[in-house]
Amino acid sequence: PRTRARRRAARARQRRDPVIGVVAPGGAAVVALAVLGGVLSGGQWPWVLATYLRWPQTIVMLVAAATLLRLGWWRSGVPAAVAAAGMVASLVAPLQALETVDAARSETLRIAVHNTGVEAGDADAFASAISDADADLVVLLESEDIAGELDRRLDGHALLTASAPADAATAPPVVLARGAWPASVVPVDGGRPATIVRAEIAGQPLDVVAFHPLPPLVERWADSHRRSIAALVEGVLPRKVPHVLACDCNTTPWSPSMRRLLDAGLRGPTVLPTFGAPAVGIPLDHV
Known about the structure:
This protein is an alpha+beta fold. The protein is built from 8 helices and 9 strands. Strands 5-6-7-8-9 form a 5-stranded mixed beta sheet, with no helix packed on it. The N and C termini lie far apart (about 65 Å). The mean pLDDT is about 80.
């Protein structure tokens, strides 16, 4: 019986291994091409979705690599080359966005970005997080429901008021700050308005641009996202004073949208996961 069982297992492996040997490198090639298409697409949906959701793809690549390793993938040059190229393309893509930013040497302004979601948030938990971060300026997104609660709970912070454009379809970002700094709302073609705060560091002006474009999950949102980033770069970010972008950018460090922001002179995107951690782990929120 043991001999027959071994024979059956050997025959099953002989039937299964060739299939896996085709499916695994094929899946790796599809993922690699999707990532490449997303990087080169300039933000066109659905290709841009490939760069938006990179970590699940990396998991697929690792599973494919483990499967091929078990099968002795190095014995066949073509699957090995395809899988290796796919893994390299997927894993090194974020490196194009990395740039060292010098540490602050004097007085600093601490900025925090929170997206509390479309439902009522836990005001106590967010107030505690803001206090722990010792933030001077707090950008709140999708947070109109608890902005007033946070204003009452945070000593030393005040809710900065600014009038939204009459044609604004959605509410602008809400800002809490320790300083009584002026705030204004500017329309952004193709998307949500931005809030601009004229802050000060050691008597010098600093514009903090709070922004929240739509995620490129469906074609209509992707078009709005692309137009919003373009309008921000062309009409809002060219400023006469130093400026900072604080946003739930819905933009990964390796995406075409981030490349546009970096080309506009911004530096230092977040590379740690800010959404879906630890299961997915996508860095979308940046200062």
